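Notebook entry, structure prediction.
Reason for the run: the old model in the group folder had no record of what sequence produced it. Starting over properly, with the input documented here first.
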Amino acid sequence: LEVRAHRKRFGILPVTKQIDTLAAEFPASTNYLYMTYHDKANDVEPCGAGAIVLGSGTYRIGSSVEFDYCAVSSARALREEGVPCIMINYNPETVSTDYDES
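New structure, fully documented this time:
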């Protein structure tokens, strides 16, 4: 927290960038996002308060589907309740192939 406070004092704040999943061939609308200190403007404006769904992290044979299903189910339930959410995950493959979910 001390480093964060120091950055804020000097106006060094992270921005949200969007990954271009279509290599600039077409406008990309998928929400694959990352945060960086290496720019000045957000690609996507923050939506305010919401929730974070933590994924299972690195996948292991025999565990990935169950944990990914839990994370996706959590995100769906929050969306149904009108709560904006993001999922933080290493590799949510079952989600990334379904653009209605991602």
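Summary: The longest strand covers residues 15-18.
The old model has been moved to the deprecated folder.
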